[in-house]
């Protein structure tokens, strides 16, 4: 079976899906021939992959591109979204999804615009480097370096209030935000909130098949549309292939991975910022995201966890048609607004 999952919806997933999504998928995607896709071609299409379901986004007062230091000081691109209100603004830092090997500053642009306008905050979207050209965990390393710069220099460079920061992202970007919350706590960078959607959590390189994974959602949604087990493994292989096969370079890179391969293995779950985790009912990653939320609760943190039934992994990109996507965006923006505008 192709990892692309562009063929008609598998019978095992069909009864669990919202009929609105099923119609949308059947109209725009299901008849596309499935087959292996070159990574470079997939990258050119990724940010418009779900554009058939994306609604119009509100206009920000100003949008511009810039750069910040990433890992080891190398400059990486960012996109800044400014609200119409006078600064200094609270800031929401977004890390896009894409399985560590896809995605760019267009991937979550519509979500960034909604958050900027609805939450009245500056949004900074971080374009971290991708695998396999750069070794995992480059996405985490670049993103945390960007967060450090935004906290230290953002008041001057972006007219933001560095005491009012939130983090967010979807899929791999959700993982990055959750991991960066641990790193920020240890570096004494104050975060007010982390709000993520359908995050990747576990290290699935440990499992040869969906049946070996400890998460029922991996088996139940093995053949889910938009993200299935085969495609998860394809992304995971891409991540691990980025690390040298042997020698001292491999040892250095593996040492850098630490617990990042599975966020459930983080050494300390105490004193983390308020966290919101949204999962999707028809997503293989559903159960591991909810398990991570339970770990946060056990660590004594304030947590909101909500599952959106009837929708697959990237549902938040289909806000023109799916009420679940609109609610995801609106709830995320409302939580950011409420939390960051408290003095």
Automatic annotation (TrEMBL):
Origin organism lineage: Eukaryota, Fungi, Dikarya, Ascomycota, Pezizomycotina
Protein name: Alpha/beta hydrolase fold-3 domain-containing protein
Entries under Pfam families matching the protein: Abhydrolase_3
GO BP: any one term: antibiotic biosynthetic process
Positions of the Alpha/beta hydrolase fold-3 domain: 93-316
GO MF: hydrolase activity
InterPro entries noted in UniProt: AB_hydrolase_3, AB_hydrolase_fold, Carboxylest/Gibb_receptor
């Amino acid at each position: 079976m192709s990892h692309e999952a562009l063929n008609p919806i598998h019978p095992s997933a069909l009864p669990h899906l919202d009929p609105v999504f099923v119609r949308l998928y059947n109209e725009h995607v299901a008849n596309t021939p499935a087959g292996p896709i070159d990574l470079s071609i997939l990258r050119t299409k990724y940010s418009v992959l779900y554009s058939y379901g994306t609604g119009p986004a509100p206009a920000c007062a100003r949008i511009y591109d810039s750069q910040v230091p990433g890992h080891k000081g190398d400059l990486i691109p960012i996109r800044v979204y400014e609200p119409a209100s006078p600064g200094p603004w609270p800031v929401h830092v977004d890390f896009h999804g894409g399985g560590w090997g896809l995605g760019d500053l267009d991937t979550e642009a519509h979500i960034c615009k909604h958050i900027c306008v609805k939450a009245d905050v500056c949004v900074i979207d971080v374009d971290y480097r991708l695998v396999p050209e750069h070794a995992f965990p480059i996405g985490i390393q670049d993103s945390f370096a960007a967060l450090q710069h935004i906290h230290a220099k953002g008041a001057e460079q972006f007219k933001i209030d560095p005491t009012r920061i939130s983090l967010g992202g979807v899929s791999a970007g959700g993982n990055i935000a959750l991991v960066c919350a641990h790193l920020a706590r240890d570096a004494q960078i104050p975060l007010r909130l982390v709000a993520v959607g359908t995050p990747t959590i576990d290290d699935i390189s440990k499992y040869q098949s969906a049946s070996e994974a400890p998460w029922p959602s991996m088996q139940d949604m093995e053949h889910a549309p938009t993200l299935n087990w085969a495609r998860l493994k394809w992304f995971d292989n891409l991540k691990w292939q980025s690390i040298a096969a042997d020698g001292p370079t491999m040892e250095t890179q593996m040492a850098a991975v630490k617990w990042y391969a599975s966020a459930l293995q983080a050494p300390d779950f105490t004193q983390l910022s308020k966290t919101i985790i949204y999962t999707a009912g028809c997503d293989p990653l559903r159960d591991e995201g909810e398990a991570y939320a339970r770990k946060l609760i056990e660590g004594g943190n304030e947590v909101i966890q909500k599952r959106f039934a009837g929708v697959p992994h990237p549902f938040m990109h289909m806000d023109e048609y799916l009420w679940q996507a609109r609610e995801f965006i609106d709830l995320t923006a409302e939580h950011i607004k409420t939390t960051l505008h408290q003095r």
